[in-house]
Amino acid sequence: MASSSTYDVYLSFRDPDKGITFDLYDALMRGGLKAYLGDTDLLIGDGISPTLLKAIQRSRICVIVISQNYVSSSWCLAQLVWIMELWRREDRLVLPVFYNVDPSDVRKQKRYFGEALEKHRRFGRRDQTTMLDWREALTQVANICGWVANNYRDDIDLIIDIVKSIQSKGLPTRLNISIYPLRYDMCDEYLEVFLQAGPQEVVIVGICGPGQMGKTALARVMYDQILHNFDGGCFLAEVAKRSDQPNYLVRLQETLLSEILLERNVKISNTRMGRDLIAQNLCSKRVLVVLDNVDNLKQIHALVGDRKFFGPGSKIIITARDVHLHLLELFGVDQFILAQGRPLPENVAGIWEPYQRSRCVVAGLKEYIETFNHQRLDKLRNLQAVLLQERQKNATQGRLISDLLKPCGEGSASNDN
Q1: Of 107, 137, 167, which closes a domain?
Q2: 92-147 pLDDT, tens per residue?
Q3: What is the Cα–Cα distance from 115 to 192, expressed in whole angstroms?
Q4: Which residues constitute the domain of residue 271?
């Protein structure tokens, strides 16, 4: 993600409402959105802790679950005031969820909202300024279009609607499949997702696996097919093989800038100067960069350094014989691709034996494949469960309609509705 945003969604809630909030949090994370739970019961005193303050500031969207319990907490009200300040000052997107409460009661501080505020004033000895800030924040958030839980059949439908709405707000599409098996001649479907991922972010993907598995071929196909979508690009081949040459990283930095900027005479004295020039010249450009066959962090840091070196929507592809994922994981890639030199077999673990017989033993590959196999099975089980629920739901609806039509005929049922 961009350096200015750490989270997609900040969830402000009162601890007694954690059931609905935790379910919403899980749904957001499954939907590829990074969420932060603002657990108010972890706070001490009336102010906002530095941790929560930082999380709010670094979140793109603030979702506020407003219930009767919410207003009884001075911690929640302090959060609300700060969130609405960001809403006014920085145009932060704020989305309220009115959980079993009437928005008009929130807006006018009627019924339990008025009673809760009066208790704060009398027993908490709040000064007039604080009370006015709380009332103003409640009025403002109630005037924002959000979700009213009482309009939904159950919490599940409410959560689905919230997640879909947030996903449509222009947030990055996450590459949330941690290990993605791919062969170079079957990557069209993946490239479509890859291009959509992180429209306002710099997305980094690592292609890994042992030698002769098609990592470079896969990276080249991806690069050639999507380069036209970017302001410029550079494919740096066999980075590690040049490591024995003097000033090899400086020469690669010069090549990177020359190809993207279309300038022939780019001269760099040292790698630090090169990093500075990359950041200065490419921070506003949407670029595609491939680092092929890297084997240490020094190479990656010299050539792509930091996400903020590149403009929004840039894509970085790094290939490495990094079976343990240590190198790419340390750099913080968004997704790992397992390069496949041939079609994925029915049993994923089946790729282990033939490659072990034909090549030297690669430490960790067996465990690597087994891990993916378990993840694939989990995804299939989840998909089957969802499909079963849909079939049961449709069957139930069919029986209800049939029961309604039997006693009074189709016309009568329609009139009653």
Answers
A1: 167
A2: 889 999 998 888 888 888 888 888 888 887 776 777 888 898 999 999 998 888 89
A3: 54
A4: 179-344
Residues 161 and 241 in one domain: no
pLDDT value of residue 344 = 41
Q: What is the pLDDT of residues 270-304, one digit of tens each?
A: 988 999 999 999 989 999 999 999 988 888 888 98
Burial (Cβ within 10 Å: 0-12, 13-18, ≥19) of residue 155 = middle
* Tally of structural domains, the chain: 2
CB 95 within 8 A of CB 166: yes
95 and 69 in a common domain: yes
Cβ–Cβ under 8 Å, residues 304 and 289: yes
Please state, in angstroms and as integers, the Cα–Cα distance from residue 369 to each residue in 172, 210, 285, 373, 376, following that order: 28, 12, 37, 6, 11
pLDDT in tens, 41-84: 444 444 567 778 888 888 889 999 998 888 888 888 888 999 99
**Which of 115, 143, 167 is the endpoint of a domain?**
167
Q: Residues 352-361: contacts with CB within 8 Å, 24+ apart?
A: 355/210, 359/210, 359/211, 359/212
Q: Does residue 34 sit in the same domain as residue 94?
A: yes
- Phi, psi at residue 9, to the nearest 5°? -135, 135
Place of tokens 């300024």: 129
**Do residues 139 and 237 both lie within one domain?**
no
Q: Measuring CA to CA, which residue among 147, 150, 6 is closest to residue 64?
A: 147
Residues 150 and 240 in one domain: no
Half-sphere exposure of 189 (CA within 13 A, CB side): 5
pLDDT band at 185 (very low <50, low <70, confident <90, very high): low
- Closest by CA to 319, choosing from 210, 191, 174, is 210
Look up the CATH number of the domain holding residue 150: 3.40.50.10140
Q: Report pLDDT for 356.
A: 42
Tokens 């499909």 found at: 387
Contact 309, 287 (CB under 8 A): no
In a domain, 290, yes or no: yes
